[in-house]
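Message: Just now I want nothing more than another pair of eyes on a protein record. I am handing you a single protein, as its sequence and its fold in token form. As I understand it, each token names a local backbone shape. Take your time, and here it is.
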Amino acid sequence: MLKRYLLAPGPTPVPSEALLAMAMPIIHHRSPDFLPVLDAAKNGLKWLYQTKNDVLIICSTGTGGMVGSVNNFFSPGDKALVINAGNFGERWTKICKAYNLYVEEIKIDWGYAVKPEDVEKALKKDPSIKGVFVQASETSTGVYHDIKTLASIVKKCKNTIFVVDAISALVAHDLKMDEWGIDVLIGGSQKGLMLPPGLAFVGVSEKAWKFAEKSTSPKFYFNFKKERESLAKNQTNFTSPVTLIIGLNECIKILQKEGLENAFKRHETLAHATREAVKAIGLEMFTKESPSNSVTAVNAPKGLDGQEIYKNLRVKYGITAAGGQGQAKGKIFRIAHLGYADTFDVITAIAGVEMTLKGMGHPVKLGAGVAVAEELLLK
């Protein structure tokens, strides 16, 4: 028998409360039964996003939220400043170009965070830039960008909005949408929110809604104005993902019981323990600065393939973590501590890494990393 452990940066494990709620008989998305369900989700997302504005619920993966955040607020020929620091920064560039935006990139070496002053310089140099696009947590590199400082810079530009992919950062990091001045904040169901894949969430500021009025990009399924109108009636524009929204309400209840600050602290603690345990094994971090609370990216030891480490963790020990993406494929492996995660998820991951490396012939003192993790996570 091989017991399975899901320690990837998405999908993440789903709590039993949500699974049981989603097993209830299906209800119709236009029936009176569904109205209070969506109303509860609407209010819960406002709480999570720390915003007074509605958060749109889209039936798609997080990438659908990214696409909608381009075609709803911008027009062909508009200038976009993309912070490209990893695989998902590259995705911003591809989406913007797909909708015929002119893209200027600030390219960052993988493993490093953007310097806010570089963004400020770019905006001063070209005031015609309409949007700044960034990941909060760049999942491919394990880097967290300084969203608070970046928001304060973009906020000064009345003709520019700040668009943040927080798909893997939401719940793991404190993101104060209204207070900081984030204009578009995108989340996904299968990460910190502890749900199966299938929902994207998009918070939109009043500044961004004014941009939407001028957008001429084509829209049909991802039409945020129509979604906003529908949400006012406790509906979604197209068929609602009823089961996932029922589960969403259960997960928000869990987070509300824990408290937002406690959720942020839990993720910070798990991330710190993972990083220190990895170092105690003798491994090096791929992330050179500003590590994310969502996922830890680790360099594979010299002579070992990061994809083989990831594969052996899964095949031999039932631990599904993550390999490298893009230019980091084969060079790193990644361990998530995101969503429905606690002390023993980290200890399991570290023990699995130690045993995997030992089995692959790498010199490891078994228990070295586990001991460090236990000390740091001891309550």
In short: The chain has 14 helices and 14 strands. The mean pLDDT is 97. Residues 16-257 form a domain with the Aspartate Aminotransferase; domain 2 fold (CATH 3.40.640.10). The CA atoms of residues 299 and 332 lie 4 Å apart.
